[in-house]
Amino acid sequence: MSDSPALTEVESYGVERIPDADRSATPFDLFRVAFGGANTFATCVLGAFPILFGLSFWQGLAATVLGVVGGSLILAPLAVFGPRNGTNNAVSSSAHLGVHGRIVGSFLSLLTAIAFFSISVWSSGDALVGGAHRLMGVEQNDGVFALAYGIFGLLVLTVCVYGFRFMLFVNKIAVVAASTLFVLGFFAFVGDFDPGYQGSFASVSTAGFWPAFIGSALIVLSNPVSFGAFLGDWARYIPADTPRRKVVTAAFASQIATILPFFFGLATASIIAKKAAPYMDADAPNYVGGLLAISPGWYFLPVCLLALIGGLSTGTTSLYGTGLDFSSVFTRFSRVQATLFVGVLSIGFIFLGRFAANLSQSISTFATLIITCTAPWMIIMVLGYVTRRGWYDPDSLQVFNRRQRGGRYWFHHGWNWRGMGAWLTAAVLALMFVNVPGQYVGPLGDLADGADISLPVGLATAALLYLTLLWIFPEPREVYGPEGPRLVRASDAPVPPITTETGAPVTAVTEGA
């Protein structure tokens, strides 16, 4: 295995298969990147929603644990694609959605990255400015906030341009530093914390409890699920022969560990609701402002450090993969050029959303809607992996990126209508059942007495419809590799050879991984 590149060496790989000799990452590295990206203020903001929705502390903790565990279980299997195929998950989805259908994963990852990058920069920027105001009397005006957002955006963009190694270095520091600062917060707030905080619901039978409980759990769940499109970006540097259970366990553990920032957000939100209630007004919540209002003076500096570390960590994990994938959709861009383009676009959205359109309070709802569409895509990927017995043709996966045609995953003009049909149907149906209290209610959102059942509807629909379509309309036998399909049937339909866009044959060695 070759020596690892220098920390400050700009990463040269795009979404092409990473050679085995250059894969030096470990499952623990995957843990650090995934956990580091979620161990931030942005996660604390999501953790405050159970209190914002009126739950008691213990009800909120139950919803948080349910969301974290459920999201981790959905996410963890997505970690296997990176080591297996040496590329990101959007490219791997070509095997199940088709050569052109893989753009679904690219589109979902772009929206997810912008949403969570925005949450990260807004929350961290607000905390940094607020802490600086309390520590040094810095003015709190639009110019200062814009400067903080700009600094965060440029720092994140710089890390992403350098690439995976630099991002891994940042997260190595972030995991330890942010965790220490959160634990330090225990001493800052333990005197004010009351686990008996009652909220608005006396019991689970109180009208409105279940919509608030399920809505809270889904917002928490959106955090681990948001990593689904990105896991392959980091896991592709893990050697292909690494045991799958180690990779899956690392991904699962990275999200279970986020109970730390979620608990911090939940506990401090309950304190804010009692001591500084206006900051938890459902019509105009301001968790960061409330946190600063209840913090002792000595904790202002740790708050500023948390803001800086968290903004970098979450921002890089969100933005890196999207720039990487964008370079494969628009091949005129290198990875660095695509990262710069997406980064500038995201930073522009942050400024527009904060100062012109006032979107900062509704971005969590936007993120929830994106995750509602992403979860069915994830279940199709996992079931596809199971039916293929984990066998993929790396050469055919790269057809789109090379602007070629044909191959095992060409299906119908580059689209696999089985996977596409199952995903689109499940996503649309799930969106109709969304019910986020006080924010967004779909046309069928009140069908279950106001409870949000969008996620189970989306997952169940995607799973049943996809397997049904694979059974009734079997895919070509060649997509399954030497051992054949599992659970479904195969057809003897021919697979077109890989050619250039002009129809000229391509000489390539096709191998299974």
TrEMBL record:
GO terms for cellular component: plasma membrane. The chain crosses the membrane at residues 33-55, 61-82, 103-123, 143-162, 169-189, 209-235, 247-273, 299-324, 336-357, 363-386, 415-433, 453-473. The keyword Transport applies. It is found in: Membrane. Keywords: Membrane, Transmembrane, Transmembrane helix, Transport. Signal peptide: none annotated. Gene3D superfamilies: Hydantoin permease (1.10.4160.10). GO terms for molecular function: transmembrane transporter activity. It is a multi-pass membrane protein. Its main location: membrane. The keyword Lipid metabolism does not apply. Belongs to the purine-cytosine permease (2.A.39) family. This is Permease for cytosine/purines uracil thiamine allantoin.
